[in-house]
Amino acid sequence: MSESFRSMLRSLPDFPAALPVFDPASAPLDPAELFRSWLDEALTAGVPQPHSFSLATVGAEGMPSSRMLILKNLDAEGWHFATSRLSRKGRELTEHPLAAMNFFWSALGRQVRVVGPVTELSTDASAADWAERPGADGSENPTWQLYALRPVEVEFWQADPGRRHVRHRYLIPAAD
Ligand SMILES: Cc1cc2nc3c(=O)[nH]c(=O)nc-3n(C[C@H](O)[C@H](O)[C@H](O)COP(=O)(O)O)c2cc1C
C-alpha cells in the first residue's frame, strides 16, 4: 500500500516541458516591479487565483504554521493581506510580527518567496478591505485587520526543463 502510494507520487508530472526563460541580469532593481510582471504573466497563462499565497507565521516556542491567503495590494508600506486579529495567524502576528509568503505558479514553474516584519495598517483601511471583500453584506467586523509585510528578502525562482533552475534574490535593508 505505502509502496504503491510512493510510486504513484514518483509518477506524477513535473513542471510543463515549455517554461519561460528568466535572466536575472535583465531583472528590474525593484522586486515589486518584477513581481507585478510575473503576476501579469501568471494571469495571462490562466493560473487560477495567481494572487493567492501561503503565509507562514511563528507561534509558541517557535512552532511554525502556514495557510493560504489573498494578496490585497503592494505599496510603499509593503505586501498587504487581511485576516481576523483573533485568528491563529492574527494572534501569532501580535506575538511575533514576522512572516514569510510563498507564491507558486505551477504552469510557469515559478515561485516567489517574501520574508519580513509585519505591521498593522489603519482601522480605516482594514474596514475598507472588509467592506470590499466578495460577498460583503454591509456588516462591520472590528476584528478584521489589514497587514503589510515589509520585505527584507524576496527570492524569485524559475524552474528550467534541464533542471538548471534559476534563483534571483533581493536583500533589502530593514526600515528603521
Ligand atoms: C486560496 C485561499 C485564499 C484564502 N484567503 C484568505 C484571506 O485572504 N484571509 C483569511 O483570513 N483567510 C483566507 N483563507 C483561509 C485561510 O487559509 C485560513 O484557513 C484561515 O484564515 C484560518 O487560518 P489560521 O487559523 O491559521 O489563522 C484563504 C484560503 C484559501 C484556500
TrEMBL record:
Statement: the UniProt record of this protein carries the keyword RNA-binding: no
Entry annotated with the keyword Flavoprotein: yes
Cofactor annotation: FMN
InterPro entries: Pyridox_Oxase, Pyridox_Oxase_N, Split_barrel_FMN-bd
Pfam families: PNPOx_N
Gene3D superfamilies: Electron Transport, Fmn-binding Protein, Chain A
Superkingdom to which the source organism belongs: Bacteria
Residues in Pyridoxamine 5'-phosphate oxidase N-terminal domain copies: 39-157
Swiss-Prot/TrEMBL keywords: Flavoprotein, FMN, Oxidoreductase
Protein name as catalogued: Pyridoxamine 5'-phosphate oxidase
